[in-house]
């Protein structure tokens, strides 16, 4: 029992009405064997596929099905707050659709809507239902709501057809749960500082020099760090992209100098700083109090350099602090990224190339290469920015957990 991988972890297991529900008995047993506390919630339809008695016996807790049970109200908010992780397996097309729209006509859906913990789902359905655009659309919606789904298996289906749609096997679901919970705590107790977005350097009260950075990549990194247990401060330049309300400490700035001041103040207390902002390298030497008027002939702007925030923090960092930077390049990408990493004394640099379509400032996707100092570059596929954030934090953990935890 000493090497139980889920010891002390609290898992809410949601079961919906699919033939694959019979496999949940095995999944429950595996989770319990690994030391987890498991509370099972079923939809009324699920109870027709597997007996609640089987699952209450295996999970050692009463199985909950109805919002109201024998005059008692099952507190869905408390259940949602109790769990470290919610796993819905099997997930039918019907419950998937309800989750994608926020419908809430049973206890399982009410708990899903009030859960503050990460949610994993293991879909199960017949091939045609799986391939239907509505199902794929709903899955995409769930993904962008932050729900992770476990790919379906390929094989014999309840209809007799052979194809994709089978629920992943209990052992595979257990492996995803273990991995997810391992990561979840990986930044507990760590202070993470992230810069994101553009900076605007004013010329006069109405004009500025800026760039098209949206801040989306930095916001995704902040969310992921929070999910992994870190205390997160996000120093964000001017962007309209919304930061989720809640536990991220948000500091709004406009200019590079303001960003620098905020970072310099916070850096001594920081364990990991990620510089994802597209900081303007120069600002106008003069900032006119009044709108600059049109005149005949040319107008010359004089620009002066802004502080290089990443480089300045690199100079003062201690061996227990990590700094991670970004490089957006158009040519000789790897060479330029390596030079930047050295010049700014970064521990890792994340390269994105403007030559890759789907990568860049305003997109919801990104294609990156990670260069950890002293190691070979790792090239990744085009992914959503939240999936890219997962890859970046995984890499930080993989290369630097020794330094972070000694
Ligand atoms: N950076 C910073 N402060 C600056 C400029 C850049 O903190 N004044 C950080 C960025 O957040 C990023 C890294 O440094 O993590 C590289 O940014 P980039 O603009 O590509 O670097 P520059 O040194 O400005 O190089 P370039 O000449 O290519 O613009």
The low-pLDDT segments are: none
Helix content: 25-40%
Strand order of the largest sheet: 14-13-10-15-18-19-21-22
What separation lies between the terminal Cα atoms?
26 Å
Number of separate domains: 2
- Structure classification: alpha/beta
The CATH superfamily of the largest domain is known as CoaB-like
Oligomeric state as shown: single chain
Bound molecules: cytidine-5'-triphosphate
The overall strand count is 23
Written description of the protein model:
There is one protein chain. It contains 13 helices and 23 strands. The protein starts with 9 loop residues before the first strand and ends with a helix. Helix 3 packs across helix 5. It folds into 2 domains: 168 residues, Rossmann fold (3-Layer(aba) Sandwich), CATH 3.40.50; 214 residues, CoaB-like (Rossmann fold), CATH 3.40.50.10300. With 406 residues, it is an alpha/beta fold. The chain has an 8-stranded mixed β-sheet, sandwiched between helices. The chain has a 5-stranded parallel β-sheet with strand order 2-1-5-6-7, sandwiched between helices. The longest helix is centred in the C-terminal third of the chain and has 20 residues. Cytidine-5'-triphosphate binds next to helix 11 and strand 18.
Short descriptors:
binds cytidine-5'-triphosphate; alpha/beta; Rossmann fold; 406 residues; 23% strand; elongated; five-stranded parallel β-sheet; 33% helix
Write the topology of this structure.
Elements: E1 10-15, H1 24-33, E2 37-42, H2 52-59, E3 68-69, E4 72-73, H3 76-82, E5 85-91, H4 93-101, H5 107-114, E6 119-123, H6 127-131, H7 133-144, E7 148-149, E8 153-156, E9 162-166, H8 170-184, E10 191-196, E11 201-202, E12 208-209, H9 216-227, E13 231-236, E14 249-252, H10 256-266, E15 272-275, E16 282-284, E17 303-305, H11 309-316, E18 322-329, H12 333-343, E19 348-353, E20 365-366, E21 368-372, E22 378-379, E23 383-384, H13 385-404
Parallel strand pairs: 1-2, 1-5, 5-6, 6-7, 10-13, 10-15, 13-14, 15-18, 18-19
Antiparallel strand pairs: 3-4, 8-9, 11-12, 16-17, 19-21, 20-23, 21-22
Helix pairs in contact: 1-2, 1-8, 3-5, 4-7, 9-13
Cytidine-5'-triphosphate (CTP) binds at residues 195, 256, 275, 277, 279, 281, 306, 308-310, 325-328, 340, 344.
């Amino acid at each position: 029992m000493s090497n139980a991988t889920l010891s002390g972890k609290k898992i809410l297991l949601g079961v919906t009405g699919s033939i694959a529900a019979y496999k949940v008995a095995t999944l429950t047993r595996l989770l319990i064997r690994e030391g987890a506390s498991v509370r099972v919630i079923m939809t009324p339809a699920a109870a027709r596929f597997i007996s609640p008695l089987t699952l209450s016996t295996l999970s050692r807790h009463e199985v909950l099905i109805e919002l109201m049970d024998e005059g008692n109200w099952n507190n869905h908010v408390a259940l949602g707050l109790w769990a470290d992780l919610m796993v819905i397996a099997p997930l039918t097309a019907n419950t998937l659709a309800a989750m994608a729209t926020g419908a809430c006509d049973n206890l399982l859906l009410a708990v899903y809507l009030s859960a503050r913990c990460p949610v994993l789902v293991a879909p199960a359905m017949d091939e045609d239902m799986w391939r239907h655009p509505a199902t794929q659309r709903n899955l995409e919606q769930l993904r962008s709501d932050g729900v992770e789904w476990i790919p379906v298996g390929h094989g014999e289906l309840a209809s007799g057809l052979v194809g994709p749609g089978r629920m992943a096997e209990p052992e595979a679901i257990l492996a995803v749960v273990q991995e997810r919970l391992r990561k979840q705590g990986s930044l507990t107790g760590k202070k993470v500082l992230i810069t994101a977005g553009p900076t605007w350097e004013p010329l006069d009260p109405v004009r500025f020099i800026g760039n098209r950075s949206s801040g989306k990549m930095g916001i995704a990194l902040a969310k992921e760090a929070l999910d992994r247990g870190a205390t997160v401060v996000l120093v964000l330049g001017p962007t309209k992209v919304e930061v989720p309300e809640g536990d991220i400490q948000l500091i709004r700035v406009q200019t590079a100098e303001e960003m620098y001041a905020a970072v310099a103040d916070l850096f001594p207390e920081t364990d990991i700083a990620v510089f994802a902002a597209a900081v303007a390298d120069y600002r106008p030497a003069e900032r006119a109090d009044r709108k600059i008027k049109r005149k005949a002939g040319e107008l010359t702007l004089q620009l002066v350099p802004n502080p290089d925030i990443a480089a300045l923090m690199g100079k003062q960092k201690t061996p227990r602090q990590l700094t991670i930077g970004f490089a957006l390049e158009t040519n000789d990408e790897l060479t330029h990224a390596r030079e930047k990493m050295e010049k700014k004394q970064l521990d890792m640099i994340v390269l994105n190339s403007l030559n890759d379509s789907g990568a860049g400032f305003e997109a919801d996707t990104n294609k990156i290469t990670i260069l950890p100092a002293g190691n070979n570059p790792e090239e990744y596929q085009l992914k959503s920015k939240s999936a890219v954030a997962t890859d970046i934090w995984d890499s930080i953990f993989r290369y630097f957990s020794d330094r972070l935890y000694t």
